[in-house]
Amino acid sequence: MPVTRNSEHPRVVGRKTPVRIFQPLGLTGNLSASDQAIITEFPQALSLFRKKDFAAAALSFSNLADKDPVSARFAIRVHDYLRDIPPDNWDGVNNLNRK
Description:
alpha+beta, 3 helices
């Protein structure tokens, strides 16, 4: 059975609602220990990110960053948000402004 993860919900140019992006990781039973850690820990880090708990999310994403490029990208984004906190109406969605 294929294993995927829901990695992000960007809002693309021309759409008002976010789009769900899924990343295939492999087949059940064939996943490495590293992939298993990503499957377990990434959703927790993403939940912290969406709750605006950027300090905890930064730690979680940083712990995964060396084995997961998506987590590395989120770690950078979270560190940016720690410096420049998003507004109160921030919805956790990455708004893409070009194709």
